Each structure stands twice: as C-alpha cells, then as structure tokens.
Amino acid sequence: MRVDPTYVSNLVGSLDQAQANEQQLTAELSSGVSITSLGQNPVAAGENVLLLNQIQQDDSFTQTSSLVTGQLQVADSTLGSVVSQLTQAISLATSANNGTMNASNVESVANQISGILDEVQSLANTSYQGQYIFGGGQTSTTPFTTSTATSPSVTTYNGDQDVNYLQTPNGQKIQLNVPGSQIFLGTGTNSVFGALNALVADYSSGTVNTAQAVGDTQALNTALNFVSQQRVSIDNSITQVTAASDAITSDQTQLITAQTNLMQANVAQVSTQLSLAETQQTALEDVIAQLDSSSNSLFSKLQ
Amino acid sequence: MGTINSAFSLISGALEADQSALSIVANNVANANTPGYTQERPNWQENQPLEINGVSYGQGVTETGATSLRDSVLVTRLDQQQQLASASSARLTALDSLQALFPPDSGSASAKAGDIGSDITTFFSSFASLEANPSDASLREEVLSSATTLAGDISNAAASLNDQSAGLGQEAAGVTSQVNSLTTAIAQLNQQIQTTSPSADGGTLEDQRNQDISQLSQLVGINQIKTENNGLSITTTSGQLLVSEGTSFQLSSGLVNGATHFFLGNSDITSQLATGGGQLGGYLTAATQDIPSAMATLDQLAYSISTSVNALNNAGTDLNGATGSAASPLYVFNEPLQVAGSAQAMAVIMTNPDQIAAAGAGLGPGDNSNALAMANLANQAIAGGATPTDYYSNFVSTLGATVSGVQAENMAQNASVSQLQTQNNALSSVNLNDEAAAMSTLQTSYQAASQVFNILNTIMTSALNLGVQTTVS
Questions:
Q1: What is the pLDDT of residues B152-207, one digit of tens each?
Q2: Would B343 disulfide with which of A283, B24, B298, B374, CB 3.0-4.6 Å?
C-alpha cells in the first residue's frame, strides 16, 4: 500500500484546527457569551431577538406604570379632598336648613359654601406635570370655569369626554382618566357644581326657602355619592396597574433567566472543552516533533 | 552463439541503463518538494533477443526514459472538488463579514449599541411610554431620539452591505487577471505538449499544465475536455470556452449599474460564473445572492416601519392640534417611494417632537389613542407578513442558518479535498523511502554489472594471450 509522504502537513492542519477551537473557547470564557456570531447557533440567535424584545417591552412598561400610578394617585387623592369638602358643605347646609339661624349666619354659610365651591373647582382643575387631569383629552385647557352673571352661578366644563388607556404588553387596557364632566357635572342631581351653586344662591339672600334648600342639600348628597363612585373606578385602575406591573416584573425575571440560559457561556462546560482542546494540541505537537526529529526516510540509513 | 564481445556490449548497455535510471531517481529526490511535480519511474525494456541457429540469446536491457506516475481521473476529480471547496470558502469569508454586521445581542448595554432588534423594540416602546402622558415633552423627545437611532442603525447596516458588495466586486475583478494569465500559460503548454508528446504523457510539461489547471480551478469553475494529440480545451462549468488547445480567451470585468460584471468577449457571463464554483463563484454568490438578500430584508423592514408609522402619525393630531395634509404631511421618517433602497435612505425628517401625533384625529392634546395605535404596530404583521421584531428575528436566523450551512459545506468539501489530495500524493508525490530503496537497488545492480564487465575483461585478456601470461593484461 502506498502512503501519502506529506502526512506531517495534514497533522499541521489538525493543529491549526485545535488552535482555532481554543481561540473560540477562550473568547467565550472571556466574554461570558456562548454565541458570538449568528452562524454558531442560528435558532438561538433568532430566539434571542424575540426574548430581548419582550424583556425590553416589560422593562419599558414597568417604568411607564410608575409614571401612570403617580398620575392616578394624584387623581385619587384629589377626589378624596373633594369628598371631604363636600361633606363639610353638606353639614353647613344641614345646619342652615334647620331654621335656627339668623340672616347674617345664613349669609355666612353662603359665603363658606361659596368658598368650598371655589376650593372644589380648584381641585377639579388640578394638574399633574402641567397637564389638567380632569379635562379629558383637553389637558392644556382649564377644565372648569364659573360664570357669576346669573343666579345661581353656572360652572361650565371646557374639556371633552376623551378617555385614555394604557396597554400592557399582554394587551390588557387600563383606563387612565375619568373626564371631569362625568365626575363634577353629572346629569340631574349628580352634578356637584350644580348643587353647590344652587346652595350658594339659596343662602346668599339671608332668607332660606327651606323646601328648596333641603332639596338642593339632598342633591349635593347624591352628587357626593356619585363622586365617590367615580373615585372607585380610579382606584380600580391603580390596582390594575400595580397588578399588571407586578405580573410583568415576574414575567421579565423569567424571560431574563431564559435569555441568560440561551446566551451565556456555561463556564464549567467551556473550561472542560478548553482543557480537552489544549491536551489535543499538546499531543499533536509531540507527535509532529517526534516525526520530525527521526528524519523519517531510509536515506538516513544509507551509507 | 553468443560471444564475449556480445556479452561486453550487453553489460555496457546495462551500465548505461542503470545510470539513466539513477539520474531519474536523482531528479525525483531533487524535486521532492516541488509543487505539482509528479514522481517518475524509469522504463526498463528488455532488448529484442537474438536467435542464432534456433537458439535465442537475451540482449540485455535498455532504459527508455521516465514515466510520470499520474492518475488523470484522480487529478481531475481533485480539481473539481477544489473548485467547490474554494467557492464555499470564498463565500464563507464574505458571509463572515456579513454576519459581523449583525452580532447577537447578549443583553448587555454595550451589546445593544447598533443592534437593530433592540432599536425596533425601543422605538415602539417609546410610543407605549407616550401613552402615559401624551403631551410630555421628554417622552416625545424620546420617541424622536429612538427613531433616529433605529433609522441610523438600519441605514448604516445598509451602507456597510453596499460597501461589502463593492469590495467583493473588486476582489472578484482581481481574480480575473490571475485567471487570464493561467489560461494563457495553459494554451502555451498545450502547444508544447502537442508538439513534443502527442501520444504519451507529457511528463514535466504535463506536471506544469496540471499545476496550472489546479490553480485555475481554485479560481473559477472549469470543465476539461481532452482533445487529440494530448491537447486540452477548458470551458467554464457552464460551457464558455476559456482555452481551446493553443488559444486562450480572456475574461474581462466592468461595472454595470454599479455592480461588477464579467465578460468573455462581448457576452456577460456573471450569472454563469456565480453558480460555477471556484473563488470567483464564491465571491459572486455572496455578492449576487447573500448580500442582496440581506439588503432586501433590511429594505422591507425600513420600508414597512417608515410607511406604517408615517401613515398613522399623518392621520393623527399633533400637540399643536395640527393634522397632516398632502401639502405638509406629518412624517416621522422620510417617506420611501419604493421598497428597494429604503434601508440606506431611512432617516428621521421630523425635527420638532411636538409634531408627533399622539392624539387621534380631531382629539385634544391629552388624548393618547394614536400613540397607542403606533405602539401597537409593534404587534402587527406590517413587515413582510410578520411583526417587525419577528421579521428581524427571522432574518437573523436565516442569515445564521446560511452561514452555518456554508460552514458545514465548506468543512465537508475540505475534508473531501484533503482525502483526494492524500490519494493523489500517495500515488504521485516523491516518497523518499521509495527513492532510497530504488537508489540502493540500482547501486547494487550497477556494481554487479561492473563486476561482470571486470570478469569479462579478464576472460578477454586470457583469450587474447592464448593462455600465456605476457603482454596484454
């Protein structure tokens, strides 16, 4: 049988390959990443794009949700203050309605309720980061203004009925605002400003038309309940955002684990492979040295 | 009846034959490391016997020259396999630079820089953040800045692809001059071989011709056709004539629509060369298939994102209450007119973040419905039937699979080449052990022949002196 007399050069080829292998393994160890080019593992590279996309979306939602929670909490505490102002107005009206007050005291009640009206209007015009929160989509227009030209005065809504939603990465839509007209200018007896303006008009002359005043006080009471109901929907949104944010955070943790498993080099495994490659290289070098030193041809034996 | 004289002539013939055989061995040893050299064996031929009175007498030996130990089927097979191996190796080199433009994102902050997949997500997430507070200036600024990053990275990648394509064209054009000098040399060798050895192996000339063909087949895919009188014609794999016996035909290259094309005479043979194999085939496959396919994907991605986002933004209401019109459209990206070229041309033309139309048509500045719609584009099949991220992920996997496929192909072809090389070397390259053994054998036979000559000389002396030991010694 004939042999290839240049077999040492084939061994050198294997030596090159062993060295390239070591180089790759060393790169994995030093970078900590197992996939450094697309061709190494095409499926994992594609999967990695999708995982990172979800992780990033989750991350971005977590940040957005804290921003949104701030805004919703301001709305909630504003409505809390409105409720306590209205409670105070109801107790003032109730005491004015019981017929024991003189004219000047009734006028004083009218003034106090008027003050409460101003306070509630200013609460209804609350802004968060420069944006009115009860104006619907009209966040740069003062939502409520009162005209004193008529008696009772008339408070008008300058916003719109626009409702914003925040969409979670899972597609859930969370309501972000309640238009101001729905809270403060409900239809019929649900109108906060209507009831307050009526009461101010009832008491401002000093004489009380009890039937009228009792009816208006009753209306304010109804309006108060209506505000509380609207507040519940904001509270619900806060709960939903918090829950969604928690779910997304735990989702993100799992995705990061999956992504890490996919891309990170398994140090123990890579080290073992590296050590094997080094052994192989040493063995090949020894073989080549051996073959070279024995000057492998019959010519060395000829005399 | 044989005579002492005839024995003299016979043994001196043997000495000459041994000498020329020794010189063939010496030539083998001298060329042991010459690339393309095929080891030669002396041809021994028994001389025609002489018949005298019905008795046959052997007339010794003649050395009639050397024969190269060559298996032309094996050599051709090796050339063919080398074409494939060098094609896939050239293509792999090009693909390696191609895939380096899209390194896998390990998730670290530094790895994100320039990563288009991450840019896409950041861009659409910036609309999702805008849902929280549609009139917030910093969130709006964020949308524009992420759009700029996305457009910049896509257009940079496209520009690099174009550069790589041009670079490959230049390298391929460089190969043609080597091809031309080799075909010229082969044509000359054809003439010499046809003149000197029309009916037998051309020996050293044949070695040179094979060596040239081997180099040529690494550069370009070829077919060999044997012609009469030991001549040779060479065509490209798809049949265009490069060498016809003593005549060679020159390849030339030139730019057609910005791409390097190759011509033989007046006919454009670029596409035939691309599929033909060899280094040229590998370069052309990368330049005409792999890079354009990556470019088409980027173009589609850029076109889809630009047009979809532009359309929605144009239909919404910006912070100042304006809606886009034909005269002054509210475009985030420059609106591409066609898919081709979209990637390199992708850029953000919007300068004022107030122009981002977060609000739906006719709605107040606090409305976020259009921002939500634009954020939702990330989950809609806007790019070639897939979401932008799925589309990019698919592109990455496809490119990776191509690279890994070519890697596997190249490895298999190289293994096959080295196997064939080993077989061919075993037959044709100079084995010093064999030469030492041959040397030793020839030495012995030369010594034996000279000893015979010596004895014949003594016998002849005795004959001349008729048994008396006097003058002639």
A1: 999 999 999 999 999 998 888 889 999 999 999 999 999 999 898 888 777 888 89
A2: B298
d(CA B299, CA B311): 18
Which of A68, A137, A297 has its CB closest to that of B366? Answer: A137
The pLDDT, as a whole number, for residue A4 is 80
Tell me whether residues B103 and A42 touch, CB distance under 8 A: no
User: Left, alpha or beta for A125 (phi > 0: left; psi -120 to 50: alpha)?
Assistant: alpha
Residue of B33, B78, B121 to mutate when probing chain A, most A C-beta within 10 A: B121
Say whether A302 and B439 touch across the interface (CB within 8 A): yes
Q: How close B7 gets to chain A, by Cα (Å)?
A: 31
* A188-237 tens-digit pLDDT: 778 899 999 999 998 988 888 888 889 999 999 999 999 999 999 999 99
* pLDDT classification of A1: cutoffs 50, 70, 90: low
Ordered alpha helix ranges (H), chain A: 7-31, 42-97, 103-124, 180-184, 192-204, 210-263, 267-293
Q: Which of residues 195-224 of A touch B (CB under 8 A)?
A: none
| Confidence category of residue B2, pLDDT binned at 50, 70, 90 | low
Measured distance CA(A140)–CA(A133) in Å, rounded: 9
Return the residue of B nearest to A65 by Cα: B132
**In angstroms, how far apart are the furthest CA atoms of chain B?**
144
CB contact set of B464 (below 8 Å; sequence gap of 6+): B472
Average pLDDT, chain A: 89
A274 touches chain B (CB under 8 A): no
A60 contacts B422? CB cut-off 8 A = no
Contacts of A36 in chain B (CB under 8 A): 103-104
CA B146, CA B419: separation in Å to the nearest integer?
54
Question: In this complex, which of B122, B132, B393 lies closest to A49 when CB atoms are compared?
Answer: B393
Q: Which of chain B's residues have a Cβ under 8 Å away from the Cβ of A49? A: 105, 117, 389, 392-393, 396
Instruction: Look at residue B305 and tell me whether its pLDDT is greater than 90.
Output: yes
Is residue A164 within 8 Å of residue A136, measured between CB atoms?
no
CA distance B433 to B93: 40
The dihedral built from the CA positions of residue A291, A294, A298 and A300, taken in this order, carries a sign that is: positive
**CB atoms B431 and A263 under 8 Å:** no
Mean pLDDT within A142-155? 89
Region B296-314 average pLDDT: 95
Q: Could you tell me the CA-to-CA distances from A136 to A67, A144, A286, B360 in Å, in that order? A: 18, 12, 82, 13
Interval A40-91: pLDDT, tens:
899 999 999 999 999 999 999 999 999 899 999 999 999 999 999 999 999 9
**Measured between CB atoms, which of B107, B427, B431 is closest to A263?**
B107
Amino acid at B238: S
- The rounded distance, in Å, linking the Cα atoms of A134 and A157 is 10
List pLDDT tens digits, range B337-362.
999 999 999 999 999 999 999 999 88
Q: Across the interface, which of B107, B400, B425 has its CB nearest the CB of A259?
A: B107
| Distance separating alpha carbons of residues B155 and B116, to the nearest angstrom | 10
Q: Cβ of B133 and A53 within 8 Å?
A: no
Which pLDDT score, from 0 to 100, does residue B402 have? 95
Closest chain B residue to the Cα of A2, Cα to Cα: B426
CB–CB contact A129 B133 (8 Å): yes
User: For A35, which residue in chain B has the nearest alpha carbon?
Assistant: B104
Q: Which of B450, B452, B451, B448 is nearest to B7 (CA)?
A: B452
Rounded Cα distance, B186 and A159, in Å: 89
Q: How confident is the model at residue B473, as a pLDDT? A: 55
Alpha carbon of A214: minimum distance to chain B alpha carbons (Å)? 39
